[in-house]
Amino acid sequence: MGKPQKYDQILDALQKLLATRDIQSISVSEIARTAGIGKGSIYYYFPSKDAIFEALVERRYKEPLKTARDLAELKDISPFTRMAMIFQACRSSTKELSGPEGQGMPGDAKTQAFLHQKYFRYLISELKPVLTEIICQGIENGEIHFDYPAALAEIVLIVLTVELDNTLLPSTPEETENTIQGLISLLEKGTGNPGGSLNFLKLW
What we know:
Blueprint: H1 5-18, H2 28-35, H3 39-45, H4 49-60, H5 62-72, H6 79-94, H7 109-140, H8 149-165, H9 173-191
Helix pairs in contact: 1-2, 1-4, 5-6, 5-7, 6-7, 7-8, 8-9
């Protein structure tokens, strides 16, 4: 059963406000006015402004996470191919996190850091068990040789989320290329795969 219309109206309102405003300056009353509903309706669905933002994050990544979970079940496809497909699915959702239609991140550096932290914490925490499962499957069928699948999943996700966003640690295209290539090289060596075999994981 889908979410009520007002639920999405509230999320749309916060997203609209975030396109031009500092999140700390946005009140629940303003969200309600922008959504065209009463303030009491906000608290029927959400206990706080932070809860609204968390729901907005969840909605943003709903489809990529569904893709990830579906891919985890496709055991006839190489684990590395599935990893690459997951990263591609998340890439578009990570771009321009809070600004629709290319408006980009709002606010000052502090606001941007807050927004990115929320997004990335959610993305990494949700994807880590999925990626760990895929790595474990690769270990079981002999395609991956590694003793710490959960740690490997976390390392890969941290590096890629930072590089996908390019805001937390701004990099030139060349620097990004080098970082991704370095990650691929580490994956190849750490998982017992020959050099160059995982280049298809590159996102650029």
